């Protein structure tokens, strides 16, 4: 399976449904942190440019808040595309967003287990 | 044995590119009874029809099959051609090898094989076709128009001007519809009321037009040329003949807290009311849910003040029954409910409004007397944001999949009017696409940008966040700049999707007119019969058929009127001869067929029957062919197999089944 | 009434309050939370990938446990509720996930989404009833202006969560009203606090949290209430406003906060 | 089940003139493909379809029969599709006894505006019938005439 097909399979998204309205980008709390913006995710998939998508910062910036998924008028679910790109990354060894050595320094007294659990899920395999 | 001719059409390349027409001809010639078969590029063309005529004469055809497009396209063409050449039109069958074959299959061998099978089924049927004669029915020379908006008014006027009687049934207290709620109209900035009111007056004073306001269609029976319609005239509690429209009752009415529907609920009205100043008829109605007298028995103030004694609390709904030859549906539209769009804060902030509400705010007779004000605090807005496509072009379950068509233009209109009247107020429009196909439409939009400085931003809005200071923070995006936009606004206007009026489903069911998944009425053909319903005698006018602006609506209303006039101009209509018929030798008079007949077309008579030498009086079902519409419900219900449907007989349909499964 | 109960990882530790108050209030209101014996952490985030199965299995185990006890499965933490509910939806409606998860699980009877997942707030709304709850309040929180913070996980995606209107929810406001306080509605109550991003990018999360708490404070809220330990952590790090768990508020109103 | 590699099912589709036949036309003019195995017979209304026609089709070797009419409430003749629905419910409940599996028959409402639904319906029905394979169970019992 090539990368585009992989993204489509993992995300279950049909990028061709997108009408480029930008409501996802208007809703995204991480918009300013991202190099590739939410409304562009599907365009990268359509253009077979998954490499760029996987190498972008955006994969690590999405909060999975589902605002784009909820508000998308075309039922495209752009957040699922970026999550699939992240999946492809973390399934490759050495492509993780968080190393075990980093963790102790990132914790404080109050850090809930939930934060650690979800960070592990999001950043690592 | 029938002598059958088979004619295979290429339809240019539409059929011939996928179906091997020569092969179909070759296979046709092997069918029993087929004495002639040929193919031709365009069978429906004059030259094609000449070939058919020659073949009928030369081969003395007693039946024919045309393998071509859908019978819904050209069955009538080929049947007329046969009739002109001495062959009964009902001895012609169509094998649909275009819509049902060449257009949906890619593989030539597969499509050809299927075309041959469809041809065989048609040949098998024609063997059993009987020559049928169409009967005649009279036409009631009166039309009904359901809905009294601009579409209904225009249709009624055009029919009436041609000399036919028309009745308009309008469920609101006045005719006028949505157009009466609009302030100005595009692509010129005519005042809506100024151009609509004369038409309303003309309709009301036309000798051929009868207007039933505050009325609804209750029941429809009959068929083209002969509809019988029950109309409920809701109790008005005001005598139409006595009332002078002086308006004193409305002033004096102490119940003034009902939401004013005409102003989209933005202010209130009295319990006795006319919806707007130019209402026709200028006779108020009493809202029974708000009237103190009708609810508690105490009050009666309007009666006391009415100098002509027009108030009548004892009035009740009245059902009148009328006969019509044709019915036009002109039920119009409403805006969708926005309760699923919480992100835009509609209903949460008073300053987030729909475009139709803005029309009322901009209108001199509206809740703010035409002053552009925030409904929350009465202040003049300095920043206004318009959001396009709210609920339009959606494939989720919140909105509608279609483009509402009018929003781009009315938003340009609103933006321009605001900038013209309030130059200090900034206007921003968030759009996905600006759609301006129409005469002078793009020029109009460009004026908004170039002459009036309206700020158009390509991108949708994700959220409208009301702020503690009463302003609205609009979270949008500028896709061309690739930037998120945070825009502080005093007012947000939502270009809300339109949808067919909620009553249309009920009306469509009564008329047996088909309706699509969006509740728009279906036209008989999307291109060639856009104002006719597939149900004969039922016509479509205005937005009930699909989103339209005023010029288009008026054009379509006129087109629907022409179709009605064409129908009413006929003294007699040919009836469908494919009606049910009982075999007197098999009928046992059990009455089951009459029970299922939706038209009351079946009665019974006692008749002397000669059953293989036994002569006796029997109770036999008799079908009134003028009433029978040929559905066939009775044929399947009949326990003795006596009832059959001409043109779709048991033997014919079984022959088709056998040919397909052969 | 007895419910199967899924406390979740954080409620065992940092969010012990959320857990203790939930159980105590349940008893007071006439229902019992029976902790599942062999629950495992839900993972904190729902694995979005259609091909991820293993990470969904802990949820399936919990769901199946509730099914076997013929009880509805109650969660208090927003994240647990979110993950359980979405995995349950997959198990009911996505044939591929259902088959593959059941192949792993090798249960005596395949699990097909039979259990019903409820959030504690839903139990209060739909089973206890807010009117009924109001009657049991002994310390009404009169005069307090409380903003509900929903965050993302309770509400979205609305088509699966079916918890409340995802853009205009009312359940927490109704809850606050039932306790005698005045709910403060502010626009960012369903916007993200940053979630897991705060482990590495504190500033990003901080900006989002400040927008939320500033807006609530602007509308005169004197505290925010939440159902999510991570939201609480993120908001608390970036706000003057006190952030409390809804169960703590409930315990206070029911008069069992001190007794504990 | 002996499914030959190139086996193609024979499928009869009864379509009412007003909705489903028009829906099929719309599928055609919109170029929405479905397998050529489907052959349509036009009837004025779904209530014209006698259960005998369906039995006849199976008797003559059909592998699937589908009946399409207007949506409930939208029948051109007001009530015809209700009769059809009841008749077919009764017939289908007995077909298994006669040797025809449940998946070989279907009733579907398709309006004149639903070209997409028509195509999707035919695709899924054909897929179902293909999975069932040739209609051998009735074939064994079939009375050849």
What does this molecule look like?
The complex is a heterotetramer of chains A (125), B (662), C (260) and D (145). Chain A has helices at residues 3-11, 23-27, 38-46, 50-55, 58-61, 67-71, 78-90, 103-106, 113-123. Chain A has 125 residues and is mostly helical. In chain A, helix 1 packs across helix 7 (78-90). Chain B folds into 5 domains: 4-126, Rossmann fold (3-Layer(aba) Sandwich); 142-234 and 317-332 and 501-568, FAD/NAD(P)-binding domain, CATH 3.50.50.60; 248-305, no CATH class; 335-499, FAD/NAD(P)-binding domain, CATH 3.50.50; 580-646, Alpha-Beta Plaits, CATH 3.30.70.3270. Chain B is built from 18 helices and 32 strands. In chain B, the strands form 11 sheets. In chain B, strands 8-7-6-16-27 form a 5-stranded parallel β-sheet. A 5-stranded parallel β-sheet of chain B has the order 18-25-19-20-21. In chain B, strands 2-1-3-4 form a 4-stranded parallel β-sheet, sandwiched between helices. The longest helix of chain B has 19 residues, at 108-126. The radius of gyration of chain B is 31 Å and the shape is globular. The model of chain B has no long low-confidence stretch (mean pLDDT 96). Chain C is of the alpha/beta class and 260 residues long. Chain C folds into 2 domains: 2-120, Glutathione S-transferase Yfyf (Class Pi), Chain A, domain 2; 129-254, 3-Layer(aba) Sandwich (Rossmann fold), CATH 3.40.50.1860. Helices cover 46% and strands 11% of the residues of chain C. Chain C has helices at 9-12, 16-29, 57-68, 78-93, 95-105, 120-128, 130-136, 158-161, 171-178, 202-218, 229-236, 246-254; strands at residues 2-6, 32-35, 73-75, 117-119, 145-148, 182-184, 223-226, 243-245. The radius of gyration of chain C is 18 Å and the shape is globular. Chain D has helices at residues 20-29, 51-59, 80-98, 115-132, 136-141; strands at residues 11-16, 38-43, 64-69, 105-109. The model of chain D has no long low-confidence stretch (mean pLDDT 90). The two termini of chain D are 25 Å apart. In chain D, helix 3 (80-98) links the parallel strand 3 (64-69) and strand 4. The chains are: A mainly alpha (125), B alpha/beta (662), C alpha/beta (260), D alpha/beta (145). Chains in contact: A-B, A-C, B-C, B-D.
Summarize the topology.
The complex is a heterotetramer of chains A (125), B (662), C (260) and D (145).
Chain A: H1 3-11, H2 23-27, H3 38-46, H4 50-55, H5 58-61, H6 67-71, H7 78-90, H8 103-106, H9 113-123
Helix pairs in contact in A: 1-7, 3-7
Chain B: E1 4-9, H1 21-29, E2 34-40, H2 46-58, E3 63-68, H3 71-84, E4 92-96, H4 98-102, H5 108-126, E5 136-138, E6 142-146, H6 150-161, E7 165-169, H7 192-205, E8 209-212, E9 215-223, E10 226-233, H8 248-252, E11 258-259, E12 268-269, E13 272-273, E14 285-286, H9 292-296, H10 301-305, E15 318-324, E16 326-329, E17 333-335, E18 352-354, H11 355-362, E19 383-390, H12 407-421, E20 426-431, H13 441-450, E21 455-458, E22 461-466, E23 472-478, E24 483-489, E25 491-496, E26 498-500, H14 504-511, E27 538-540, H15 550-568, E28 572-574, E29 580-582, H16 592-596, E30 602-611, E31 614-623, H17 633-637, E32 643-645, H18 650-661
Helix pairs in contact in B: 1-5, 2-3, 5-18, 6-7, 6-15, 12-13
Chain D: E1 11-16, H1 20-29, E2 38-43, H2 51-59, E3 64-69, H3 80-98, E4 105-109, H4 115-132, H5 136-141
Parallel strand pairs in D: 1-2, 1-3, 3-4
């Amino acid at each position: 399976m090539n990368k585009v097909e992989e993204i489509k399979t993992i995300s279950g998204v049909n990028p061709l449904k997108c009408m480029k309205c930008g409501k996802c980008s208007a809703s995204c709390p991480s918009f300013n942190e991202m190099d590739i913006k939410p409304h562009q995710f599907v365009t990268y998939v359509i253009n077979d440019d998954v490499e760029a998508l996987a190498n972008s910062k955006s994969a690590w910036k999405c909060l999975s808040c589902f605002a784009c998924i909820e508000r998308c008028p075309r039922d495209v679910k752009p957040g699922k595309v970026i999550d699939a790109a992240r999946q492809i990354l973390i399934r490759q060894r050495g492509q993780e967003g968080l190393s075990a050595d980093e963790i102790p320094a990132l914790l404080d007294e109050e850090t809930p287990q939930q934060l650690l659990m979800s960070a592990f899920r999001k950043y690592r395999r | 044995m029938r002598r059958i001719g088979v004619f295979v059409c290429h339809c240019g390349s539409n059929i011939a590119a996928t179906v091997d027409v020569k092969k179909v001809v070759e296979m046709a010639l092997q069918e029993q009874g087929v004495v002639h078969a040929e193919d031709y590029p365009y069978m429906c063309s004059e030259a094609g029809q000449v070939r058919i005529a020659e073949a009928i004469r030369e081969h003395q055809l007693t039946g024919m099959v045309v393998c071509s497009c859908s019978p819904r396209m050209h069955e009538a063409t080929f049947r007329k051609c046969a009739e002109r050449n001495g062959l009964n039109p009902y001895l012609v069958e169509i094998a649909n090898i275009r819509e049902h074959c060449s257009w949906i299959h890619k593989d030539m061998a597969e499509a050809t094989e299927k075309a041959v099978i469809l041809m065989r089924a048609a040949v098998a049927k024609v063997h059993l076709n009987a020559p049928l004669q169409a009967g005649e029915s009279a036409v009631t020379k009166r039309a009904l128009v359901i809905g009294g908006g601009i579409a209904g008014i225009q249709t009624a006027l055009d029919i009436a001007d041609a000399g036919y009687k028309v009745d308009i049934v309008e469920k609101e207290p006045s005719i006028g519809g949505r157009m009466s709620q609009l302030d100005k109209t595009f692509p010129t900035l005519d005042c809506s009321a100024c151009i609509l009111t004369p038409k309303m007056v003309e309709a009301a004073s036309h000798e051929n037009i009868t207007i039933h306001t505050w009325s609804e269609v209750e029941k429809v029976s009959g068929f083209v040329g002969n509809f019988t319609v029950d109309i409920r005239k809701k109790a008005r509690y005001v005598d139409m003949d006595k009332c002078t429209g002086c308006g004193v009752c409305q002033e004096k009415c102490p119940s003034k807290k009902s939401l004013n529907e005409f102003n989209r609920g933005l202010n209130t009205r009295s319990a006795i009311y006319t919806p707007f100043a130019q209402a026709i008829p200028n006779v108020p109605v009493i809202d029974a849910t708000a009237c103190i007298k009708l609810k508690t028995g105490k009050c009666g103030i309007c009666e006391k003040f009415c100098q002509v004694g027009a108030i009548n609390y004892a009035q009740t709904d009245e059902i009148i029954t009328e006969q019509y030859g044709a019915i036009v549906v002109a039920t119009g539209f409403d805006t969708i409910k926005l309760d699923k769009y919480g992100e835009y804060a509609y209903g949460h902030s008073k300053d987030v409004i729909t475009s139709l509400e803005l029309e009322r705010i901009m209108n001199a007779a509206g809740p703010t007397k035409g002053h552009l004000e925030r409904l929350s605090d009465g202040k003049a807005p300095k920043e206004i944001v318009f959001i396009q496509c709210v609920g339009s072009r959606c494939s989720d379950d919140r909105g509608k999949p279609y483009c509402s068509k009018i929003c781009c233009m009315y938003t340009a209109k609103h933006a321009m009017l605001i900038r013209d009247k309030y130059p200090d107020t900034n206007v921003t429009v968030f759009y996905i696409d600006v759609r301006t196909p129409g005469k002078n439409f793009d020029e109009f939009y460009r004026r908004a940008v170039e002459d009036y400085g309206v700020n158009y931003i390509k991108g949708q809005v994700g959220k409208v966040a009301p702020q503690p200071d009463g302003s609205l923070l609009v979270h949008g995006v500028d896709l061309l700049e690739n930037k998120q936009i945070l825009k502080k606004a005093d007012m947000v206007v939502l270009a809300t999707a339109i949808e067919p009026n909620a009553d249309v489903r009920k009306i469509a069911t009564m008329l047996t007119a088909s309706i699509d998944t969006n509740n728009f009425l279906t036209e008989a053909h999307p291109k060639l019969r856009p104002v006719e319903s597939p149900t004969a005698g039922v016509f479509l006018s205005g937005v009930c058929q699909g989103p339209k602006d005023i010029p288009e609506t008026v054009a379509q209303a006129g087109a629907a009127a022409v179709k009605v006039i064409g129908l009413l101009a006929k003294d007699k209509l040919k009836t469908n001869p494919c009606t049910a018929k009982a075999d007197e030798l098999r009928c046992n008079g059990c009455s089951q067929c009459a029970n299922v007949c939706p038209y009351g077309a079946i009665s019974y008579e006692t008749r002397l029957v000669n059953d293989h030498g036994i002569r006796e009086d029997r109770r036999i079902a008799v079908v009134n062919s003028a009433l029978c519409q040929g559905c066939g419900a009775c044929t399947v219900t009949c326990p003795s197999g006596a009832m059959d449907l001409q043109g779709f007989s048991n033997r014919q349909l079984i022959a088709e089944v056998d040919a397909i499964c052969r | 009434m007895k419910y199967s109960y899924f406390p979740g990882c954080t409620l065992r530790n940092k969010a012990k309050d959320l857990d203790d108050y939930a159980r105590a209030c349940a008893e007071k209101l006439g229902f019992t939370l029976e902790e599942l014996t062999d629950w495992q952490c839900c993972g904190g985030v729902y694995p979005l990938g259609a091909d991820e199965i293993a990470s969904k299995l802990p949820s399936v185990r919990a769901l199946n446990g509730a099914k076997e006890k013929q009880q509805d499965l109650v969660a208090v933490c927003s994240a647990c509720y979110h993950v359980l509910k979405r995995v349950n939806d997959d198990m009911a409606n996505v044939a591929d996930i259902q088959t593959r998860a059941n192949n792993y699980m090798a249960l005596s009877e395949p699990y097909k989404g039979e259990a019903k997942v409820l959030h504690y707030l839903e139990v209060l709304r739909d089973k206890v009833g807010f009117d009924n709850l109001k009657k049991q309040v002994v310390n009404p929180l009169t005069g307090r202006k409380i903003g509900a913070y929903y965050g993302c996980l309770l509400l979205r995606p609305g088509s699966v969560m079916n918890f409340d209107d995802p853009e205009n929810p009312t359940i927490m406001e109704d809850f606050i009203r039932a306790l005698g306080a005045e709910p403060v509605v502010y626009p960012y109550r369903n916007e993200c606090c940053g979630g897991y991003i705060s482990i590495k990018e504190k500033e990003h999360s901080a900006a989002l949290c400040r927008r939320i708490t500033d807006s609530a404070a602007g509308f005169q809220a004197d505290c925010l209430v939440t159902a999510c330990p991570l939201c609480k952590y993120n908001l608390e790090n970036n706000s003057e406003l006190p952030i409390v768990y809804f169960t703590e508020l409930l315990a206070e109103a029911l008069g069992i906060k001190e007794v504990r | 089940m002996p499914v030959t590699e190139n086996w193609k099912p024979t499928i009869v589709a009864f379509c009412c003139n007003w909705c489903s036949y028009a829906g099929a036309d719309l599928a055609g003019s919109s170029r929405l493909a479905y397998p050529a195995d489907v052959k349509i017979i036009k009837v004025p209304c779904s209530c014209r379809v006698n259960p005998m026609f369906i039995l006849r089709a199976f008797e003559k070797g059909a592998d699937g029969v589908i009946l399409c009419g207007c949506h409930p409430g939208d029948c051109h003749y007001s009530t015809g599709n209700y009769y059809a629905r009841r008749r077919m419910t009764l017939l289908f409940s007995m077909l298994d006894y006669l040797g025809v599996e449940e998946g070989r028959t279907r009733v579907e409402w398709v309006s004149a505006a639903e070209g997409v639904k028509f195509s999707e319906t035919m695709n899924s029905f054909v897929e179902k019938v293909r999975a069932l394979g040739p209609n051998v169970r009735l074939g064994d019992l079939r009375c050849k005439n």
